[in-house]
Amino acid sequence: MALKEILPFWLAKKLKGAYQKLSGLALRGQNYYCPYCNNSFRKLRPGGIDLPVIYEKQIIGAGYRLNDVCPRCNSLDRDRLIYLYLTLKTNIMTAPLKVFHVAPEGCIRAMLSVLPNITYEAGMKYHQGFYYDKNTTILDISKLEFEDDTFDVIICNHVLEHIEGDLKAIGELYRVLKPGGWAILQVPVSRVLETTFEDPAVRTPEEREKIFGQFDHVRIYGQDYPKRLENRGFIVARHNPYRDKWPAELDRFAINPEEDIFIAYK
Ligand SMILES: [Zn+2]
Were both Cys, which of 24, 95, 228, 250 would link to 91 (CB 3.0–4.6 Å)? Predict the structure, then answer.
């Protein structure tokens, strides 16, 4: 049983905070920068796991990464990619926008939810053993209880690969987005699979880890991923900070140079 399941929430959070502060101090340096907690580090913590399928299928956005997790605030490479997109390419820091954040990452939420211009809504599926705070709504992404055309922005970062029947969820995200709105819909994508691979017979965590690359993934997205979004109405743009030469010291953010960002417009 994990420590966090037997300790009261506030105590577990305090202990974790103290540990992170100390480990963050030990790794201080100048090589890498985390924009969420505004700290610089000699190195970040490694993240992800090595599995044969991840290499065989060349799944971008999965697998072991040496400098991945911010030692101070736990931001991941994928979260820092989103930071760069939001701050360099959108008006989210200043414009009055209604934002829906699915399965909210703490670092992204901490940044957006305090912005005075943002009306912020967070929601996620119920998971046993996971802490929820009062600001996160428990919801089913395949059956959202929001009205049509509710949000200007949706952030859904590495969620759809966990959802059985993702096309329904994509349709729901499209439905609740306002016309003219945009969504960041990140998933791990195989570089070599033309077509998304799923198999409903693969059900156990052990099988899913072996075949899809993570115990709770239900498919491997292929190069047809943007088409899946377009089939539900979105117009998709695919960007890459390195390829598109975004004006930032990209190496310091320790993002994955191969991870593209998918922006879906309604
Ligand atoms: Zn950080």
Answer: 95
